[in-house]
User: What shape does this take?
Amino acid sequence: MINRKILWFSSVVDFLQSILVQDPALLEIAWVELLEKNASVTAEELAEMVFGSTEPLESYCAHLLLSKDEIYFTVLETKSSRSIYGPRPTGQVEKLLCKKLAKEAAEKELQDFVHLLVSAKAKPAHAKPPKSSWMVDEKIRYKIESLEAYAIDACKSDEQRKTAGLILKAMGLAKIASSALNLLINIGYFPVHVNLDLLKLNILTDHSDEIIAAAESLLSESSDLDEMNRKDLTHLKVYAIDVDEADELDDALSATRLQDGRIRVWIHVADPTRYVEPGSIVDREAMRRGTSVFLPTGTYPMFPEKLAMEGMSLKQGELCNAVSVSVVLHSDGSIAEYSVQNSIIKPTYMLTYESATELLHLNLEEEAELKMLSEAAALRLKWRRQQGAIDTSTLETRIKVVNPEDPEPSINLYVENQADPAMRLVSEMMILCGEVVATFGSGNNLPLPYRGQPQSNIDVSAFSHLPEGPVRSYAIVRIMRAAEIDFRKPICHGVLGIPGYVQFTSPIRRYLDLLAHYQVKAFLRGESPPFSAGLLEGMASLVNMQVRAVRRLSSSSLRYWIIEFLRRQPREKKYRALILKFIKDRIAALLLVEVGLQASAWVSVGTQVGDEVEVKVEEAHPRDDVLFLKEVIRN
Assistant: This one.
């Protein structure tokens, strides 16, 4: 009896499966016949038409065919439990068939794409398909770009979001951004350490072929409008001091001692306006970028690299066009006289901050000019402090990542103290140049981006109980008012302790510095400045939006790589940490001295702001911006 039932059940299942496989053809035959007769049909009537029987099994199969059909028939009415179906018009059926075919094609495309993803995931790192291979076929490109947009929460349409969701579902993954990110990493499309913020903020990296061609033509064809008016300063010993990986050198320094004992310093600034004119295609592209982008993994220059490096940048031992600011200082560090002029210089030394500091410590007779620059910097710092300047020097971290596409790239980390002699020297000379340009602009009614920052009546003595350096600087910076900018006249920069300030020393890297150069250079030629104060203000507003985005990117990128650096260190390694402030109860904001990173941790009772504690890294996850520290209790 049981065997008979099993056989019967198997035959029913086989029958149902055979019917469902044939259902399109069966329904189409019935649809054609009923459409010609303009007749409707019930499940039983359809069973009679296609199976020649109205037995329960055949009727049930007919019912299944009609209820699952989305092409040929539609329900006209339902009486009790019986439905009456009518054939759809020919035009409607054709549209529905096209839609079905498109859906089936899309499903096949999706499955083919999923197969590609699975195959790429399974391959070892060295054998994964290159990123470019996903860009060849238009449909594959759309799907991979949908995943990329989903990973950075930047889908341009609901369709793109839906596409990414379908792919993730087909891969058995949760429909969240991290799933898309990890998938793209696992197939080799993204490197392990892909910079998501670089993608999210839509920061420009490469220059277009059109811009590169325009830049190269400037190198070969442009003429120097100021050639006859350049002062020959090639007799001066010129020091260019910057970080060791600097590609674009904007500024350099010289010093001489006058017969009366006073010091004359020269701040030489690269002259990109030798090549670029306001409103040109290369200038407009530089404005769109706003600034060069410096990341641990690479540099994306504001100007095309060849133009910046071969034409604009200062180069050791070569004749270079510059705008030179000459300043004679009084014995108290105040400005006695100044000039701003086009020049030709021949840089003598290209020094890193470390090598410049070493030379200063050696105090060599043959480097008397460097010693003079240090002396001038000390005079200036003393004078600015007398004017109310506030010292906010702290630790500055630089990271250079070698082969960032590798899963475990080499990380070189440097922490520099802004109060170190060479950094202090350069900083003071840049501030001096900014003050001179502001004075020059004011005296000649030049619209310029004049920067200022009120002191907010900060009583520095109120912080004297804190140790000098990063802890005190952190406390002071927290209560500072925001910087201001005026385009008509200088405004007091109370924090720097000077009556006015214009950023002028990085025209290859910062577009607002370039704007200041356009204005000053026009005046030196006896021409009207190209931009009114109103125009400058509008341009600066657009540029500053981009600059703020780049700052966010630089900050997040630096933090990512510092946390990645810490993740790789031995778990037992201890770090010195300065307590900056208490956030809540015994949870303190800390500055990790060896890496220059701010973090937080619970510290023991009795410790105070300014104290140094030891901590260990418990967890470090750069992708999630997670860093858990634990204090090491000293015996």
The two ends are 85 Å apart (CA to CA). Residues 2-37 form the longest helix (36 residues). Confidence is low (pLDDT under 50) at residues 1-9. The chain has 17 helices and 21 strands.
